């Protein structure tokens, strides 16, 4: 009969597996946690990937994009991040369509982070989100609050003012 | 809906000694950026049985793993909670996980699922003749037998073991009286067999050891202290691939004899020990203790592949509700629920009542490794028929999302 092993609980000063966003020009950028919390409200369509590490094995490994299809079934897609045998740096650039890899919080990019290693990961994203009153909403009554007001009042103040400026230039 | 474009960049640092397959940009991956560390000291832990349990969020999850530290880590990571790793601190080996959300409890390796049988027989004899016969049928997972006999003038001890354990260790120490005859017969070939015999020899001593079958590795060590006036030793061995025999002899024979037999055997769940003592000695004390613990978990629900889309609300086998052994009882849609059903044998029917939100698939692998699958696409009852259920290999019910 074995004796159960009770865990020793400690609080570390720094996490052993950390994901952070680098410092911005204007100060500390958003945290990874904040990024995750934004998912759902903000959906990120990745257009370009850039991956940098200290070894070729890290950037040349299989990367999987996991997501769900319209029927609710999970789908795992392999992304062919191929390393050029003549390249000089363990870095990789990969181009996708913005609707091919979408990060929503339910999807993920899965790859191995090796023991004691650091990876740098960047992507250029098209971000779709619920707009504010000043954003283009593409509604029949107008694109924004000002156009709604104009249509409701039967006037076109800004267009008229614009035409006035053009006519008097 | 509005659209904008932005550059997003991350630095990912893994400062552990383990590789991790991390699903980036997915919520609820709790080991990332966590600082609460749970460590288990496994320096002296025995991993050989390949089973165990761990408590996470007050729920006990069963573990089945290859009997190594690496195998145990894989099994812990497969639970889907935090990322586990090992480290060595001041000569001690620890398994640890860093997680701010889940709360981890005891790690129990090789726990009560193993059956342990301990039989102790003590005979204090004052008569001229004493005969002790022990017969063991069926080999338990771990069996320890200890026999101490204070032998009278003439003593005959016979031990017969039937069944082939994985590992067998037999140790016999005899301080022999004037005339002593010891006969040991072992049938069956264990994977590893170690036999050690120590005899303090009297005036006349006859020792016969017969081993039938060739174990993969066999080590036989015989030490004889005191050389008798007349001594005949006969050993017949069908020689194994590796064999080592060491014999040492010296002097003096006592009037009193003590025989101790200790055997440790790894094998099945049922053990029957019968001890018969004929020709009652002046004083005889016999005590037999047999302890068998825990119901065998012969029905296990596994949702490692992820099953959140449907819930099992009722379980029965041939209409008989099984007994919960580990995890939580129905209803559930998570991993790690073990049951014991009394409905064992062939051609059993497992009935599951399921409430469905998303489509899924259930795969049942019975005790004879027969596999059957069914798509789970509407709420109702699902029956898996023709199953073989026994108390040696658990029936695995694997729950997963998506169609089969």
Q: Regions of chain B with pLDDT < 50 over 5+ consecutive residues?
A: 113-119, 136-141, 224-228, 237-292
Count of β-strands of chain A: 9
Shape of chain A: elongated
* Mean of all residue-level pLDDT scores of chain A: 81
Distance between the first and last residues' Cα of chain B:
37 Å
**Helical content band of chain A:** 10-25%
Molecular shape of chain B: globular
Structural class estimated from helices and strands of chain A? alpha+beta
Measure the end-to-end span of chain A.
95 Å
Decide which structural class fits the backbone of chain B: mainly beta
Describe this structure in words.
The complex is a heterodimer of chains A (169) and B (404). With 169 residues, chain A is of the alpha+beta class. Chain A has four helices and nine strands. In chain A, strands 3, 6, 7 and 9 form a four-stranded antiparallel beta sheet that branches. In chain A, strand 4 (63-68) and strand 5 form a beta hairpin. Helices cover 2% and strands 56% of the residues of chain B. By secondary structure, chain B is mainly β. In chain B, strands 9-11-20-13-15-17-19 form a seven-stranded mixed beta sheet, with no helix packed on it. Chain B has a six-stranded mixed beta sheet with strand order 18-16-14-12-10-21, with no helix packed on it. Chain B has a six-stranded mixed beta sheet with strand order 24-25-22-30-27-28, with no helix packed on it. Chain B has one helix and 30 strands. Chains A and B meet through strand 1, strand 2, helix 1, strand 8 and strand 9 of A and strand 1, strand 2, strand 3 and strand 8 of B.
